[in-house]
Amino acid sequence: MSGTDRPVLAVLCGEQRPPDMEPIESVASVRYADAGELPSALRGADALFVYDFLSKAVPGAWHAADRLRWLHIASAGVDPVMFPELRDSDVVLTNSRGVFDAAIAEYVLGLVIAFAKDFAGSLRLQQQRTWRHRETERVAGTSALVVGTGPIGRAIARLLRAVGMRVAGAGRSARQADPDFGDVVASDDLARHLPGFDVVVAVAPLTEHTRGMFDAGAFAAMREGARFVNVGRGELVVTADLVSALREGRLSGAALDVFEQEPLPPESPLWTMENVLVSAHMSGDVVGWRNALVELFADNFARWCDGRPLRNVVDKHLGYVPSSR
Fold first, then answer.
1. For residues 44 and 21, is the Cβ–Cβ distance under 8 A?
2. What is the pLDDT of residue 4?
3. What is the DSSP code string of 23-64?
4. Which of 85, 137, 224, 262 is catalytic?
5. Domains 8-99+287-306 and 101-278 share a fold
6. Which entry of 281, 290, 303, 311 is annotated as an active-site residue?
7. Residue ranges of the chain with pLDDT lower than 70?
8. SUPFAM superfamilies, from UniProt (predicted)?
9. Annotated catalytic, 233?
10. So what's the pLDDT on residue 324?
11. Where are the domains positioned within the chain?
12. 3-state DSSP call for residue 280?
């Protein structure tokens, strides 16, 4: 962008405004809006910052986007804004790829160790004041398949390798000698490879090809007693099929940070299953994460104002930022 006019920026944020916006406010006309106010904020706006990245408000307000040229979402996943009108428009879409990689990788490593060392069982026994000696498992020497080979998947693979696990990836295309995964298998051929792993980690983006990829067939294909971790999107999983696999003992455990319906309904059986760890869509949300999201957006905003290439441009037909490897 060039010229002397102040750009107009709409920010979808609800009640909680993003922090550290003062530098942007000094050079742009910023309109903060909740879902109901978004159509008004979009009229005449040049750019949209979807800070409330779980909101579903953008498609319904899109009719008012009469001048929009750029949309940035404060998440790595872009599925909340991936609708036909945006996909077919000239509006550039960017995401917050890179902010959550290390934090989510640490979270996954923690879950893998928690299962192996039965921390949940120890906590239950402590609450019952019961002294019960048990044997636990080694993590080193076990295997993990990371389904999703973007930056978050790579960070997960590196940490799991660091504790002695054998790791492979599943992505859009098969390849060998990858620096982080070693072997990468094709996601289209996932069921054939699932039996070879003790832990399966789902971190794939949500697209029309990945929705419901972990269904009854996938869980049946997994090694008996395998564990499943989902830190990607809840809609990657057919929840009823996962519950059945856990109840029938085909899987020995699941750690779930994302769900088809959020918040997870109180009546969901997942809450009370002893072999399930539930968390509230928080695997990447460490202290300072909101500031980091705004810092990335501010850098992209400066690039956009100067006419320089933007970071994290999403291929709107793939549904994610293409990887260079």
1. no
2. 54
3. HHHTTSEEEEE-TTTHHHHHTT-SEEEE-STT--HHHHHGGG
4. 262
5. yes
6. 281
7. 1-4, 324-325
8. Formate/glycerate dehydrogenase catalytic domain-like, NAD(P)-binding Rossmann-fold domains
9. yes
10. 63
11. 8-99+287-306, 101-278
12. coil
